[in-house]
Amino acid sequence: MPKYDIKNTEFDNIMTLLYRVFDIRITLFDLQEHEIPHFHIKEMSGYCKERRKNCQFNEECIKCDTSNLVIAKAKKNVHIYSCHDGLLEGIVPLYNKNNTYLGAIVFGQLRESGKSAPGNISARLKKFYAALPRFTKKQLRDIGDLIKYLSEYIIENELIKYQNKPWAGKIAVYISNHLNEKITLEKLGRIIDRSATFISHHFEEEFGVSPKQYILRKKMEAAMDMLKRGESVYNTANSLAFYDEFHFSKSFKAYWGNPPKQFKQT
Question: CA 191, CA 246: separation in Å to the nearest integer?
Fold first, then answer.
């Protein structure tokens, strides 16, 4: 089962700030679609607390959360929806640079502007419903987009980080240190005393992409850094084990959308 580390203090600071700014419930769900409870966030609304006292209703809530987390995970983008009880909710899935799913930031328990309480609930529940924050779907989308931008900071600074299996960690280090060589599945297998077939079958489970795609990305990132530091296209191509300058330039443009000379410092 995948595991990950969270820098709790920094992540908690972000969650607390979001709560203070928007005054809505924003929380983190883990890889197994379970809410992580130990952040300083807004409590569950009185309306939802009362509704969830009914076991059958609570089961529907769990099913709704799970199904929409699956949708957001597949979209890899902000997902805004109405829950089974008509409340507005939003999900921002978190993916690291290796395209590995790390969980999701979930926000909501909001009534939609212009909508009234369900007609089949008690007067007590209607009072709780009236106390819910009121938003439009457009406003919720804007909040989702802002959280998505913030999630990029979270990923870039590894406030939440996937724990690779030991063999995968060794391979990642090896690749980073040998970008100047032609890296084959056989070489990677020898590093961890496994076969090339093992690497072929299990690499994507840990890194989110194939070995070829991962190595290319690492080389393209290194190439971009070298060019911005003033290295020549020829030396960059040679240092990263491309066949020649033409092959490198073609691969670079296909990956970044522009030729390498455009990024080279003058």
Answer: 31
CA geometry: angle 93, 97, 102, nearest 5 deg: 35
Taking the C-alpha atoms of residue 7 and residue 161, their distance in angstroms, rounded to an integer, is: 9
107: Cα within 13 Å, side-chain hemisphere: 29
CB-based contact 207:162 (threshold 8 Å): no
* DSSP class of 258: S
Q: Is the pLDDT of residue 212 over 70?
A: yes
Nearest to 41 by CA among 59, 25, 57: 25
CA separation for the pair 27, 191 (Å, rounded): 40
Domains of the chain, CATH where assigned: 3-162 (3.30.450), 164-262 (1.10.10.60)
- Mean pLDDT (whole number) for 197-209: 86
Q: pTM for this one?
A: 0.67
Q: What is the pLDDT of residue 3?
A: 61
* Cβ contact 186:196 at 8 Å: yes
Unique residue bearing structure tokens 């990029």: 152
Residue 223 has pLDDT above 80, yes or no: yes
